[in-house]
Amino acid sequence: MLDICLPGTGGVIPLENRWLACCWMDYQGSALLIDCGEGTQIALKKSGCKLRRLDTLLITHFHADHIAGLPGLLLTLGNSGKTTPLTIIGPAGLKQVVGSLMIIAPVLPYPLRIGELETDQSGMVEMDGLQISYLPLSHGIPCFGYGVAVKRKPVFNPFKAEQLGIPKPLYRTLHAGQPVRLEDGRVIEPPMVLDGERKPLFVCYCTDTQPIASIAEFAHGADLLICEGMYGGDELHEKMEERGHMVFSDSAGLAKKAGVKQLWLTHFSPACLNPEESIDAARRIFPNTQAAYDGIRLTLP
Questions:
Q1: Cα distance between residue 154 and residue 177, in whole Å
Q2: Could you give the CA distance from residue 63 to residue 157 in angstroms, rounded to a whole number?
Q3: Active-site annotation holds for 65
Q4: What CATH code is carried by the domain that includes residue 142?
Q5: Residue 63's domain spans which residues?
Q6: 229 secondary structure, DSSP code
Q7: Which of 45-49, 124-128, 274-278 bottoms out in mean pLDDT, i.e. has the lowest?
Q8: Is beta strand 224-228 parallel, antiparallel or unpaired with respect to 263-266?
Q9: CA-closest candidate to residue 278, choices 297, 251, 241
Q10: Residue 71 and residue 105: Cα distance in Å, rounded?
Q11: Is residue 125 domain-shared with residue 139, that is, in the same domain?
Q12: CB contact at 8 A, 267 and 137
């Protein structure tokens, strides 16, 4: 299962009732976090995220509301008992930015591994059983959207296993892709009891950006698209696009083109105090849209 949570959904500055936008994903006891603006460690704790599980941090870009909380997060992880490495991935220049921020957090009880992504290039990396894809966005400075895919085991067919006389305690081994030898000497290979591959679970996260067409291709068929919506009203479309952002209908249009299953809007402007008031602007285009809120959670089986 893949557990997804948005501990914060705000843009620019944290508010009394809304932390800055970030995304937490938990898979098989290991966690991944996208972005860490001011106060992110508090938002994570309030949302019930288990900090010691955090192994990977993805940074979309170097604006303060997406990375200024890094020193506090790193120190909180250390105080939470983390000793295993933390991998941080982001745009070119990440090493310098992290080094500068760590002037106020120079000693940590765990090592950092920093990976920089080539500007204007898309690609994919595999980490801890996850496939992490990345896409350059359009925001005035280097900025990446991220996709996280989880491979799923093929469907196990118990009828086939029963017909072959396989003891039930061996089902798990076969489902994991390993052959087994029966007491009568027969060797059973996994394809003999499996019914083919299943589509991976796929979550796509894109903020901050103009509504570029490549996002729809990047997010194609996603189980969940998490996309920014600075404002709800279409009257602000041109103003937001000039600033490298989107309104609700922009994100909904991309979700529709991508054929995703559901859309969460996030990264709301401090002036957008009640996103639900404008949600119809998105639902007219893509009905399965939700205005996310701090702590919203979904588990993909």
A1: 9
A2: 50
A3: yes
A4: 3.60.15.10
A5: 2-152+199-297
A6: -
A7: 124-128
A8: parallel
A9: 251
A10: 6
A11: yes
A12: no
pLDDT tens profile 71-89: 999 999 999 999 999 999 9
Same domain for 126 and 225? yes
Regarding whether 237 and 257 lie in a shared domain, the answer is yes
Based on the fold, state whether residues 144 and 14 are members of the same structural domain. yes
What are the φ and ψ backbone dihedral angles of 48, each rounded to 5 degrees?
A: 80, 20
User: Residue 255: which H helix or E strand, with range?
Assistant: helix 248-258
Indicate the number of domains in the chain: 2
The reply to whether 38 and 177 lie within a common domain is: no
Where is 56: in which H helix or E strand?
A: strand 54-58
CA 36, 98, 105 angle in degrees (round to 5)?
A: 85
Question: Rounded CA gap, 166 and 174, in Å?
Answer: 10
Give tens-digit pLDDT for 9-54. Answer: 999 999 999 999 999 999 999 999 999 999 999 999 999 999 999 9
* pLDDT above 90: residue 148: yes
Residue matched to tokens 């009568």 = 184
Which is the catalytic residue, given 26, 35, 55, 65? 65
Cβ contact 25:11 at 8 Å = no
Q: What is the CA radius of gyration of the chain?
A: 21
Q: How confident is the model at residue 201, as a pLDDT?
A: 96
Tell me 156's DSSP state: B
